[in-house]
Amino acid sequence: MRKESSTNFSNENTLKEFCAAHKVLMQISGRWKMSILFALTERELRYNEFIDVLPNLSERILTKQLGELQRDNLILKNKDKTSSVYSLTTKGKDFIVLIKSFQSLGSL
């Protein structure tokens, strides 16, 4: 839990109020979030498949990032009889389209 009296917390709230894009950037700012989202553009993945696709990603961080992406409605977790399957939501798919349009700016 974060201290609401901290300077960082106060600054973050000010930025969210000043610039709506800041909230979006905070939602995807985790080190592995973009990689997780792009992995899901190929196909739905089970938890263990993320480890195969992103071998340097620890299970602790994967669990944390998946939870945050679900909370922000970018991915969906569907449970079947034996495991959980993750996929992009409509919001997640729209977000990927937007990010792909920015890829050309990476060479500026």
From TrEMBL:
<keyword id="KW-0238">DNA-binding</keyword>
<feature type="domain" description="HTH hxlR-type">
    <location>
        <begin position="19"/>
        <end position="108"/>
    </location>
</feature>
<dbReference type="InterPro" id="IPR036388">
    <property type="entry name" value="WH-like_DNA-bd_sf"/>
</dbReference>
<dbReference type="Pfam" id="PF01638">
    <property type="entry name" value="HxlR"/>
</dbReference>
<dbReference type="GO" id="GO:0003677">
    <property type="term" value="F:DNA binding"/>
</dbReference>
<protein>
    <submittedName>
        <fullName>HxlR family transcriptional regulator</fullName>
    </submittedName>
</protein>
<keyword id="KW-0805">Transcription regulation</keyword>
<keyword id="KW-0804">Transcription</keyword>
<dbReference type="InterPro" id="IPR002577">
    <property type="entry name" value="HTH_HxlR"/>
</dbReference>
<dbReference type="InterPro" id="IPR036390">
    <property type="entry name" value="WH_DNA-bd_sf"/>
</dbReference>
